[in-house]
Design a protein that fits this description.
7-stranded antiparallel sheet; globular; mainly beta; 3% helix; 1 helix
Length: 131
């Protein structure tokens, strides 16, 4: 079997450091719990819209990618489809095997690269987000 299709997925988890040596699962409260049970493989916090607050980006395998916009109150909104990050330009989900984020020279854009592994090559898909 190649890929996760047919296998059960798992919700994503976000933990808050309680400051006493313990962590609290705030996934549902923060609205990043992934109730669809996608196949999350990697995530990164990055300020996608240059508003000074870290947003959450998740690379999922064989299903749409996730982009959660930070609402500055401990919660996020799902901006995956509205931002154009969820799918390729052709409207397809990809097997995102990892994720990397880096700043661009302008103050209004960030580059998010999701890496997809294919049998013989590794392709790089770059999505640009501008405010």
């Amino acid at each position: 079997m190649c890929g996760p299709r047919g296998l059960p997925g798992e919700s994503d988890h976000l933990f808050h450091n309680s400051g006493d040596g313990t962590f609290t699962d705030v996934s549902k409260k923060a609205a990043v719990d992934d109730p669809q049970g996608y196949y999350g493989l990697a995530s990164v916090f990055v300020d996608v819209d240059d508003d000074g607050w870290l947003d959450l980006v998740v690379a999922n395998d064989s299903v749409p990618r996730s982009l959660y916009h930070n609402l500055r109150n401990g919660t996020f909104e799902d901006a995956s489809y509205l931002s154009g990050f969820a799918l390729t330009n052709e409207g397809l989900a990809q097997a995102s095997m990892g994720i990397a984020a880096s700043g661009i020279t302008t103050a209004t854009a960030k580059s998010i690269s999701a890496l997809q592994r294919f049998p013989t090559t590794i392709r790089r898909s770059t999505e640009m987000m501008a405010t």
